[in-house]
Structure formats: structure tokens, C-alpha cells
Amino acid sequence: MSAQFATKRLGKELQKIRNSRLPPGIELVSAENLEEWLLDIQVLDDNPLYQNQTYRLKFRFGSTYPIEPPEVVFVKLSDRPIPMHPHIYSNGIICLDLLGQQGWSPVQNVESVCMSLQSMLTGNSKNERPPGDDDFVRANQLRPKDIEFYYHDNTV
Amino acid sequence: MDTDDDFMSAVSSEYDRQDSDNDDMSGVEDFDFDDEPDTFIDSQKEIGHRRKPAYDISFRVFQPADIQRQQQDLIHEVNLILTISKEEAAILLRHFRWNKERLIEDYMDEPSAVLGAAGLASNSASSPKMEIIPGFVCDICCEDEPGLESFALKCGHRYCVDCYRHYLSQKIREEGEAARIQCPSEGCNLIIDARSLDLLVTAELTERYHNLLQRTYVQDKETLKWCPAPDCQNAIECGVKRKDLDKVVPTVACLCGHRFCFGCALNDHQPAPCELVKQWLKKCADDSETANWISANTKECPKCGSTIEKNGGCNHMTCRKCKHEFCWMCMGLWTEHGTSWYNCNRFQEKSGTDARDAQAKSRVSLERYLHYYNRYANHEQSARLDKDIYNKTEKKMVQLQKESGMSWIEVQYLNSASQALQTCRQTLMWTYAFAFYLARNNLTAIFEDNQKDLEMAVEALSGMFEKSVTELADPQLKVVIMDKTTYCNKRRVILLEDTAQNLAEGMESLGEVASPSACG
Ligand SMILES: [Zn+2]
Ligand SMILES: [Zn+2]
Ligand SMILES: [Zn+2]
Ligand SMILES: [Zn+2]
Ligand SMILES: [Zn+2]
Ligand SMILES: [Zn+2]
Known about the structure:
The structure holds two protein chains of two kinds. By secondary structure, chain A is α+β, with helices and mostly antiparallel strands. Chain A has one domain: Ubiquitin Conjugating Enzyme (Roll). Chain A has helices at 3-20, 110-122, 133-139, and strands at 26-30, 36-41, 55-60, 71-75. By secondary structure, chain B is mainly alpha-helical. Among the domains of chain B are: 125-201, 2-Layer Sandwich (Herpes Virus-1), CATH 3.30.40; 278-286 and 361-519, Up-down Bundle (Four Helix Bundle (Hemerythrin (Met), subunit A)), CATH 1.20.120.1750; 301-348, no CATH class. In chain B, strands 1-6-5 form a three-stranded antiparallel β-sheet. In chain B, strands 2-3-4 form a three-stranded antiparallel β-sheet. Classes of the chains: A alpha+beta, B mainly alpha. The structure holds zinc ion (ZN) (6 copies). Chain A: InterPro entries: Ub_conjugating_enzyme, UBC, UBQ-conjugating_enzyme/RWD.
């Protein structure tokens, strides 16, 4: 598959974002190149877990995007914590089926992924990390796309 | 979404009930004493049993043409009975994991539900085609140029042909999917049918795609497995269920000569059950246990650095190499401890005595493990050597014909001896892993006797087998070797038979082995 395919699609996405802006609570921080984008998201309702917080997302696109999902992680900065969630590891890795090969659809895009993550946070009431977070974070040197997540419970 | 595996196992267990009605596999379901021809028969012949031994299970070997024909037959049958097209029959069969009875029953009940679930939303006969639709925008590449060719399944989710092809190429080439590729749209479960795929799959992918489709037949059926031998295209049919793997060790033999376990696809590991084998191999691979012991029980001599193993309770250590004397506890000079070894205060500490107890315990358990491991490894290695010897045997057999005037048939006894050696070694090897986990009870003694008898017979045969051609030309030795071969096979059968019966009756208690987990 030619990288051109991904480039073209990302170009179109960028153009669309610039023309019509992103939904509330989502902001494009940088899209310097067509390999890595940074976005900020906020949870807009009054969920006390995430109130007044902004979270930084890093998207990395392969040459097979959007046939294959992008790699999406939360990034920790001094003013950008990793949100507390039973499917988000403390190193920012997200366990979400739509970002895996099985759950991904090429119709998804950067905007729809951000919205899914927003609603994943909105709907959460548990102030906790996934089980085994410590071990996972310590042991895991893999890139998210090389991890076989087991989507045990998608109700959270 | 659940993982695929979960879905699969749910489906297959649901379908289990049906299997016994499936006339395609009558005779392979149970360990019955049928008269079916089967390739696993040499040892049986030799002991002259009519009854099928408990360790021996029924299976059949299918070659690629058989597999192809079986699929075609089923598709044809369903095509006639349900009056649907062959493509649809194939998709439905794949959806029902090739359980024809279940498919027909369900279809008769509620055809539209079955079609929907299998990704054949409606019975429309319109054949799939690519279309140019004015004003169309592809949601994948965001292209909207006029004249853009597009395609949609019955669900109406339309994408440009180029995107569709990228998508299929990813699924087929990278993910190895073929029979259950879904519409690219988010959350749309419609399966891309065979005719649409024929239209969309590009020429360079067709072969791989058809291969993958072929393979689903074997992968989908719980009763079928590919022979894991490299380059072998055969599949084995066997009725042993996953849940029975703690009671039976289903060794099967392919026409290519490869003997493997139907349960876990590893090389034949009778008499040890799959779960035990898994744990044993993990234990052997994980040498941390050994490493821990070594770090707890050996130290380097503070003077010359050579490794010293502590083998008694006394802390007074003398390096064998440089004769340096030191205290095990504090590594200090022994002379500084005066004459009373307990002068070392470290020894008085409670933690010190605890550590000593723990060391003693870990030493006992390690020694036990090494006892079995060494014997296991020894047979594994010997089996390799025997194989080398067999390769030389072929030459020997030719020479022997020249020197003794024996015919090709007459020298075949060496071939039988070699085969007996291989299989018996394989069995012996696993008896040691088995024994490691075996809780001691009154059956252990019988097991160990059987093991010893087989081991002695194998070593004796192995010795004779290595004799020179001149010695082998002696007709008396031939008789002895043939007798020993028979005896080895007989001892192996007795051991396997005994263990298999005890396993089946749940009488062997395997101390440390967890029961097989249900998840796949
Ligand atoms: Zn497109
Ligand atoms: Zn669709
Ligand atoms: Zn084979
Ligand atoms: Zn096995
Ligand atoms: Zn020394
Ligand atoms: Zn000391």
C-alpha cells in the first residue's frame, strides 16, 4: 500500500478540520507532518473525575492508515495528566477496541476517535487504573499496536 | 466487543451437542473398538490385540483433495436442500462452522434470521457490481472526483473501489482473513460474500484468498487439525474434545510419518497430558528456578573467584581450587572467626536460620526437578542420536545385504528396531516429565516399574543397534534384535495402556498441575 494513500486522506482530514473546526472540547495542537498529530481533549460534562482538566493525545499514523488504525496514546506533561480510567494505563496506553485491528473501521478518523475517547471518559465513574497497571507499565516496552488487548468489559 | 476466540468457543460448544449426529464423522467420536483402518497400528499388530488399547485413539488422515471434496460435497448438498446458491451455501456453512445439520435445522426454522446472521441480509439475486454514482463521496479516502468507481454490499455502505481493495488487501494479506471479512463500515457486521470478493479481490491476492478459504474448513472444525509437519498439507480428523484432554492424550500419526498430539499439536507426548506438557516445557524454559538456587547456594571464592557450592551445613568453606578458607555467612576469612564457627554473628540472626531452611527446601525441590529433568533431557538427546544412527542404518542395511546375502525384506528388521527406538524414547522422555508431577501413591510404584522395564529394554536394544555390520550378519543377533524390538514395543504399550486407563479414570493425581483452563 502506498504511503500516498495515507497522506492524501490525512490531508483531507486536516483540510476539513481547518475549514469547519472540531467539536467542542477537542483541539488540534499540532499537525506539523502527516505522521504524528497532537490533540487536546476535555470532558465537557461535570464528571468530577475530569473536571477542569485537559488531556494531551498523540496520534501516529502508519502508511496503511485509515485501513489500519492509528496508534493513539495519552501523553503526560506538567499540565496534562493521564486521565484516570479502568481502560487507560498510567503510561498513557489506551485499551479500547475501536483502536484495535478488530474494532477499527476505516471510516473512523481523528475527530471520531477523539469523540469516542471523550465519551469513554464522560461515561466513567471509577477512579481507578486497569488491573495490573503496575506490572503492565513496568514490563511493557511494546508499542500499543503490538499489544494483544483483551477487551474484557466494554461497558466501562 | 468480545474477542473472536470467545465467540468461537461459545459457538463450538453450542454445536458440540450436534456432532454425534453428524454422519460425516461417525466412528471417530468415541474411543470405540471399531474396525476402521488406521495408521497407528504397528504396535497393535505386534501384541496381537483385537481390542483397541486405551491409549490408542481413532483418527483419519485427509489429504488436500479429500478436504476439497468434503467441502464441495457439503456445499452441494446444502445448495440442493435449501435451494440457495452455492456461494450462499458456502458462506452459511462457514458461518455454521461446517455443521450442516445445525445449519439446515436453523434455516428451516427461520431462513431470514440465519441469512442475516451470516451476513446475507436479503435473498436478493442481484449480482454485485461496481457503479459510478454522481455526487458520491468516499468516506474512507474522502475522494469525490466525478467518475469514481464505487461498490456497496447489500447494507448500502458505499466506498470507492480503490479503498475497498486496500481494505481487502490488508485483511487477506496481513490479517489472514477470508471467510469472515466484514463491511468496512463502522459497526456493520455484514460479511462480504464470495461473489463480491471475487469481483473485488485483485488478481495477485486471489490465490492467497482461496487458500485461506480452504483452510477455514479445517480451522473451523473442532474435529480437524492441520498436520504441523513443515510442508505437510494433510489434516487429521479426531473426535477427542478439548475438555477431555486431562483424561486422554490423543496421539495421531499423519501419512507423512509425523506423530503429534491432536490436543496441542506438539510432538507425541504420551503418556503425559497436554496441560502437564505445557507446564513442564515452561518450567524447563524458565531456568530462573535453577538460577535462584544457584545464587542461593553457590558463591564465588573471595580470593580466586571460582564458583563454590555449599553442600553441607557447615559455614567453614575451603575453596577446592586455591584452598582459601572463608566463612559462608559473611565471606570473611575463616581464621578471623577463631576456632568456633558460630562466632559469626550473622548466623545467630533469625533471618539467617530462615534463609538456611529456605535454602535447604529449595535445594530439595531443585534436586527433585533435576533428577527428572536430567533423565528427560537424556532421552531427548538419545532420541536425536538414535535418529542419526538410523540414517547410518540405511547404509548398513545395504551393506548387510551385500555381505550376508540377506534380501531387502530380510534386513527390514533394522528399520523396525530403529522406529521402535524412536517411539519408545519419545515415550520414556515424557514419562519423566509425567513422574515429576505425579503425586506419590500406590500407583506410582507400578508406573515406575513400567518405566524401568521400558528403559532397560530400550537401552539394550539401543546397544545392539549400534553393532557393526559384521556382527549384525550373525543370524542369531537378528533374532535377538527382533525379539528386543517386539519386547520394547510391548513394554511401551503396557506403560501407555496402564497410564491411559488411570488417567481416564482420574486415578493419577497430578499434584502440581492445574486443570486445563477453558479459555482458548
Ligand atoms: Zn475511497
Ligand atoms: Zn455495511
Ligand atoms: Zn503430515
Ligand atoms: Zn498435547
Ligand atoms: Zn579460591
Ligand atoms: Zn562469618
